[in-house]
Design goal:
10 strands; elongated; alpha/beta; 9 helices; ten-stranded mixed sheet; 38% helix; 289 residues
Amino acid sequence: MMHDGRTGTVLLGLDDTAHSWLTADWAATETELRGGTLRVVHAVHGITGAELELVSEGADQQVLDAAATVLDDARARLAAAHPGLRIETVPARDHPAEALLTAAEDADMLVVGTRGRGGFAGLLLGSVSLKVAAHATSPVIVVRGHTERTADGGIVVGVRDEHDEEAVRFALAEADLLRAPVRLIHAWAPPMPAGLMIPQVSEVDAERQVHARVLNHAARPVAEYPQVHVDTELAVGSPAAVLVETSADARLLVLPRHPPAGRLGLRLGSVVHAVLHHASCPVAVVPVG
C-alpha cells in the first residue's frame, strides 16, 4: 500500500562490500511485497581535476566503469534471485550520502547497510547510513543483524511521545504486508530520588498513568489496521537498552526521528543513535513531527 503520494519505489544504496548483498536481498523482498520498483543507486566520487594531475589519463573513466560493473552485477544477481522484479540502476557521481538523499526524494523508503567503505575499525555503523538516517524525508531502513523475514518476534515500535503516530502507522502498514504482529513499547527511566527518599506508591502510579496516556495517544493509528494484532507495553528502564534487548527477537525495529531540539540538538537523538549501532535486527527510522 502506497502512501503520502509516493511512487512505490524502494531505493537501495549499494556499495561493493559483502554485506551489501544481504541489504540488496532485503530491499528486493520488500519491493516485491509492495509491488513496486527497486531503484539501485551506486555512487562514486570520480576524480577531481587536481587529482587527475597525479594519475594516468583515463583513471577517471576506470572509476566510472567500475561503478557501472557493480550496477550491472547487482541487476543480474537481483533479477536471478527475484524474477519479475522491476529494477532500475542509477550511477551517481557524488558523495554517497548526498546521492542517496537526492535520489530518495520521491521514494517510498531508502534501504542501506550497516557499513560503508573505510572508517575506523571500531565504528559499528557507517557514516553514510548515519547521515541518510538523520536527513532523509522518507523512512530509512538500516539492514543489520538477522535479516530473516520469518522471525517470530514481529515488528517492534519504540514510542517516545504522543507525536509518534506516523512511526506507528508505518509499522502497522509493514505488519499488514508481512502478516506480522506489532509491539508498541514505551520505555522511560524514572528520575533518581534525592538522598534516601523513596517515591510513594501513589507517585509511581501517577507517573505510570502519564506514560500510559502517551503510549495510548501514539497508538491511535491501530484503529486503521484492525487486521493487525497489536500489543502495547510500558517498560521502566533505559529506552535504548530496552529496545536493543527487544530487537533480538524482532524482524524489524521501528523508531521515530524527531526534529532536533534546538540549533545544536542531535539530528538522530541519543536513543536512535544507540539503537542503530547495537540492534540485532533491521531498524527503520521514520521522520515524525
